[in-house]
Amino acid sequence: MNFSKIKENALKYLGYHHQTLDEKLNNLIDECIEEIEKMSSFRATYRKFPLSFHPLRIDEISLNLNYPELNDLFQNCHELIIIGCTLGLQVEKRSHYYSHIDMTKATIFDAVASSFLEVKCNEYEDEQLIGKRTFRFCPGYGRVPIELNKELAFIIESSKKIGLTVQESNILLPQKSMIGLIGLGDNRKEKTCQNCLHIKDCNFRKRGQTCYAKD
Ligand code: SF4
To answer: In this structure, is residue 187 part of a structural domain?
Structure first.
């Protein structure tokens, strides 16, 4: 487990940008990492499909993917992975608990859990997927509707396989979960802010950061 990466991401989510990290915050983050490591039950599942183009879709399951960002990202890919990951219900319960008794801890716990999930997903991808691949694209970004998550969850049977469901409101449960699309065969594309819905009011950008890693 890459603990320094978890801390680095968590600080980014908390709005830290080259400030000196005080001891109290540092200890709280370490405490949260330790807690989450103990109580999380990371689970992941994925399915792989051949891609069809013009329009972009997966013929085998009649899934329409014809959105500008996906056409752009997957233009040189031959296959697509639909992936779902979660940290499990215990993290969710502990997060609720802190939100009732200690807001500071709740905020830090939330940021560390998000970072933990991201690092775990990256590690899982590195173990499972060989060869060139694009970054993980999550519905809700650009013009790809968040509603697509329901269809993707159904296709990978995320509820049955890893206990991840998509609510009517499109919220993932447990909330520290992720559903994404990864193209195979091309790793040249990097995520950009260009088509992000948050570009006008993005707090990361205001601080001179981005929510994704840059080379
Ligand atoms: S940094 Fe902000 S604008 Fe850029 S992709 Fe992330 S959330 Fe969107």
So the answer is: yes
Kindly tell me if the per-residue pLDDT of 102 is higher than 70.
yes
User: Distance, CA 101 to ligand 1 centroid (Å)?
Assistant: 31
Residue 215 has pLDDT above 70, yes or no: no
Please give, one letter per residue, the 3-state secondary structure of the chain.
CCHHHHHHHHHHHCCCCCCCCCHHHHHHHHHHHHHHHHHCCCEEEEEEEECECCCCEEHHHCEECCCHHHHHHCCCCCEEEEEEEECCHHHHHHHHHHHHHCHHHHHHHHHHHHHHHHHHHHHHHHHHCCCCECCCECCCCCCCCCCHHHHHHHHHCHHHHHCCEECCCCCEECCCEEEEEEEECCCCCCCCCCCCCCCCCCHHHHCCCCCCCCC
Q: What is the CATH number of the domain that holds 63?
A: 3.40.109.40
Q: What is the pTM of this model?
A: 0.88
Looking at the CA of residue 192, tell me the nearest atom of ligand 1: 5
- pLDDT tier, 97 (very low <50, low <70, confident <90, very high otherwise): very high
The total domain count for the chain is: 1
Checking if the pLDDT of 35 tops 80, the result is yes
| Segments forming the whole domain that contains residue 12 | 3-206
